Here is the input.
Amino acid sequence: MALLDKDGVRLTVEDTVATVTLTNPAKRNAQSPALWRALTEAGRLLPGTVRVVVLSGEGKSFSAGLDRQGFTPEGFEGEPSFLDLARGSDERLDATIAEYQEAFTWWRRNDIITIAAVQGHAVGAGFQLALACDLRVVADDVQFAMRETSLGLVPDLTGTHPLVSLVGYARALEICATGRFVQAEEAERIGLANLVVPGEELGAAVQDLAAALLAAPRDAVIETKNLLRGAVARSYEDQRAAERAAQARRLRDLAGLSD
Here is the structure.
């Protein structure tokens, strides 16, 4: 069932699995403010029954990054160009970037697990969109790159936090500052990719992973994800306490004693 199909984004739902697809392969799924608003809307439209969300891109590339048209004086039709935004107030610029970031934030909600199925180029905003997901299954032709610094910009679409969490500060700095490509073997070795498969097997591998994620009871998965997401920010003792509290909730639920 299709719930959304506009501005380069399609959302379909089948039972407990939703698929968000970038649908502009002619432009290698380059991103624009309209696409970001559609991604934000897709998150809001997810039915409560959905447990797994798969993010994919049509064509040879997952997403080649930001559509450079945004940096021309004309910008996108009906949109202020990025150059116009730069000439505005600090408050307007901050609010606009915060709005863009909303397209990248909902993927880590505790009630869902998100999987990016990545092939070909995932550059800049495309890399950050893949990083927004919980898990990444990649084709063996994948090429990740954070090109913003090379263009005189910084990554600002929520990608810096997950990148540092996955590969560490030093590696993240090197990847961002050089703008170099990270290919499949290295991506798996340093933790960017959970799994690398031949391109023709990407869809099947993602389906297998989704099925495995759905095998456990939903509430247990939600509690576990919440525990793991908070682990870095908590002390060892605080994490122990969080584990005890979460397990108590699960035991009471299994015993039929929950409120």
In short: The longest helix spans residues 236-254.
